[in-house]
Structures are given as structure tokens and as C-alpha cells.
Amino acid sequence: MSRRRKALVAVTAGLATVSLGLSFTSAAGAAPGAKTDPNGLKLVKTKTSLFGTHYWYQQTFKGLPVIDGYYAKHVTKSGTTEIADGRDAVPADLDVSAKVQAASATQSANSAVTARANRARIAGPGKSLTQQPAATSGAAQLAVIGGPNARLVWNVTSRSTEGVSRSLVDAKTGSVVASKVISDNVDGHGSVFDPNPVVSEQNEKLTDMNDKNQDALFLAQKNVILRNLDGSGKLNGSYVNIKEAKGGIAQNKNNNFIYQRANDKFEQVMAYYHVNQTQEYIHSLGFTDVNNESQDFSIDTFAGDNSFYDPSTDMITMGEGGVDDAEDAEVIWHEYGHAIQDDVVPGFGESEQAGAIGEGWGDYWAVTNSVPVSKGFNLPCVMDWDATSYTTDEPHCLRRTDGTKTTDDIDGEVHDDGEIWSRALWDIHQNLGRTKANKLILEATFFYDPDTSFAAAAQDTVQAARLLYGKAAAQTVTDAFKARKIL
Predict the structure, then answer these.
(1) Following CA atoms 364, 368, 371, 376 in sequence, which dihedral angle do they give, to the nearest 10 degrees?
(2) Which has the least CB within 10 A, 97, 177, 358, 469?
(3) Does one domain contain both 337 and 223?
(4) Do 239 and 295 contact (CB within 8 A), yes or no?
């Protein structure tokens, strides 16, 4: 454990005589008892551990808290004492009358936090994103900053898409002195299908039954940890923001989000868990700037049997027609694939072939994310559970990524033509392995043009393979595209 230990080089009048009241200069000092002592120390917490008692004090100046100023006294059961002195020097003549009002300081702080949150969502030059909701304030209190730049400040707590921030606003000038996120990511608990009940139960006979709870579907639910939550009690976190949902946003102060599938909030948990999982996987590949934001979702708000990503609002909408789309992780991953490409390549999909690449990539991304949890069942079928509502043949699939189409079969419909691209990616996956394939495919995406062609995007992918893994890997990728008559 590391501790900050600071010497007082210019003490205030209140701290000048350390021997007054409690003595913290020797192990034999008086036991802490008073809430505030003449040295400006305010007892804020007493904790008991296996080895002793721990007294934590807030440093104050003229009744105001000193930012980050602390003093701790650890008294063991054997009678020894350890001191951790984290006080800052404050000039005795520091004026603690504010010229700037709390409301003005709050406005300045919230503006700074909102601007930072928006900057954090911009992935690269030219990226145009919808402005995020303005930060809101919880409280503004006067405080003191000690040290060589001692001053009176307003300590403003704000909420934004980043979580909870603390901003210090100079109470004389109104300028924002410092601002940082102080909230921590927390873990929650949820229940999900992983990736969907057809796959996890290996049962093609399952049907939706108009969203009813069923014993077979209850058995398909899996209890999971929901990582990277922002602690707000909602399904908001580093990579997912459930912005709107049928029946209202799921909320739980203890971050427990366990529902059966008939509850519309179940789909909110699905979206949060599976997008968080796929972003953690992307990070494990070494990428820190692939849609590295809190992606907005609208859950069960579209009555049709369709889901879509809207680049104009950076929102993924999950439909509720047939099987609720967000009950199938492969639908979620497909739509998230579109958000990934739009984030990496602003305006991606301007040509028909670029649009087909987007659809093929979305199908591929759904399948490759299913690989670790599918136990090989019916790969590479796409959207097994969702497809039970509109297909009669078994296995139930919307599409597959192992089809036989080549560029000879191009018909101008992006989903049809996307099957050409997804097969090439699946062949790369099969021949190079999941990790290498996904790493080089994501890397290649950064070099796509918004209106790219099959051939141009294939060449980018071959080049990424060559740079990452050498000539043999590049030849494997080339062969996959040649088999589709793309190269």
C-alpha cells in the first residue's frame, strides 16, 4: 500500500501549534475523540480491522474542507501507532469569501464536463457525432486547494456519460481549475441467453410462443457478471448505454438485473452483456479505438421484426417483432458490427459493394463471437433463435457464412451480396484461426474508403495480413478472396 506523505512547510494559524488539542507528532498522542480539533482536522471515519483501529480525518481551513487533504492515525491492538499525514499548506491569510456564485460555477463545471465527454466520443478526424446530453449537477460546495497555488474553489459534482466528475472552479475568477472523473466502474449481475437458446440447448424445435416464459427457455438462461457498469443503477457503462426501452429503463441500486425472458428488461441485459463482452474481446486483440465508447441502444421500441444501426444518431435499435431481436446475441453482434465500421470509417457504406461488405462483416462478426460459446453447434449459421420466427427449415438460419456465392452472383442487394464477403472472412477465420483473422480484419478496416469496392477492401485485408503475420498469411487471405472471385 502506498501513502502520500507531505510535510507542512507553511502552516496556517490553525495548524501552527500542532501540540494544541490532539497531538499527531508522536505515537503517544491522545486518542482521537473530538469531531474537530484546533488543528483543523475533522474526524470523518473510524474503521476497525483485525489488527487495530483506523481514524481518518479531513483537513479543513476556516471550516472549509481542503481538497485531498487528509490525516490518518492507525492504532494497532498492541498499542503502536502509524501516522499518514496528507495535509497541504494553506496561507493563514487566504480569503474564503466567494466572488463567483454557486450557480455560475456549476454552469462552468458542467460545460467543461460535457465538452470532455463529447471529445471522448470522437474516434478520429472528421468524425461527426450527435452531441451527448449535457452534464447535470448534484452539488456545489466551497472548498480550499492547498499547496503553492492555494485558492478558494467551488467543488462541483456533475453527472455525464462519463459517470460522476468532480470539477474545481476558482471562486474568485470562475475558471475551471481541474476536472476529473471520480466514479469507478462496478460489476453487476444479470441473466442472459448466450448466445441464444437454440444454440445453448442445441434444440431447433424451440419457438417464441409470443414471448412467454417456458421451462426450456428458463434452462437456457445463464447468470453472468455485468462488468464496466458506471454505478448509476442503470445498464450504462464504458461500452453500452441503454438509452431508451419499451417499458422503461432497467434500474437497480444494487446493480442486479436478473429477469426472465418475458420481461422486456431481459433484452436490455442481453444488449449490455454481449456488447460489453465483444468490446473486451476487441481490447484483448490490442485495439483501443474501435467504437471505444458507450454505444447507445434503443430496446424493443420498434414493433417490426427488424433491427438497425442509425449512423445519423449513432443509435442501435432492436426490434420486437417475432422473437425479440435482442434475445439473440447474434442479432446484437451483427448490428454492433455496423456501429464498428461507422466508427472506424466515417460514412462507411456509400457504395453498393461497401454496403454489402458491411452486411457480410456483420454476419461474420456475429458468428465469430459465437465461436467461444457455441460448442460448435450449427456453425456458421447466423441468428438461429431469431430465425425460428420466419423460417421453417432446420437448422433455422437467417443466413450462413459458408455459402458458395462468388462475384458472379452479385445481384445488387447488400444482404445477398454480403454473403460473398462473409464467406471470404469465414475462410480466413478457418485457416488462420480466430485471433489472427479478427486482428487483421479489424486492422484492415481502418484503411477502407467509405465507398470501397470488394477488390479494394480485399487488398487492404491482404496488406494487413502481410504486415501483421507475413507472406504466408497474406497468401492465405489472398486465396480466400480469389475463391470468391473478388481478387
Answers:
(1) 30
(2) 97
(3) yes
(4) yes
| Strand partners for 157 | 139, 166
Sheet with 240-245, side-by-side order of all strands: 240-245, 295-302, 315-319, 308-310
Strands 399-400 and 315-319: unpaired
Segment-wise mean pLDDT, segments of 10 residues, the chain, 487 residues? 31 28 27 50 86 90 92 90 91 95 91 77 38 61 94 87 80 93 79 96 95 94 94 93 96 96 97 96 90 94 92 92 96 96 90 95 98 94 95 94 98 96 98 97 92 95 96 98 98
Residue with cell 444501426: 309
Q: Supply 198's cell numbers.
A: 437454440
The answer to whether residue 97 is domain-embedded is no
Rounded CA-CA distance 485/358 in Å is 18
As a whole number of angstroms, the distance between CA 227 and CA 184 comes to 11
Q: By 3-state DSSP, what share of the chain in percent is helix, strand and coil, each rounded to 5?
A: 30, 25, 45
Torsion of CA 264, 268, 273, 279, to 10 degrees: 150
User: Side chain identity at 342, as an amino acid letter?
Assistant: D
What type of residue sits at position 271?
A
CA distance linking residue 82 with residue 30, whole number of Å: 13
Q: What is the pLDDT of residue 243?
A: 96
User: What pLDDT sits at residue 9?
Assistant: 29
Tell me the whole-structure pTM to 2 decimals.
0.68
208, 121: one domain: no
**Helix or strand or coil: residue 198?**
helix
> Is 390 inside a domain boundary?
yes
Query: Which CATH number do you get for residue 142?
Result: 3.10.450
Judge whether 43 lies within some domain: yes
Q: Report if residue 219 sits inside a domain.
A: yes
Residues 210 and 146 placed together within one structural domain of the fold? no
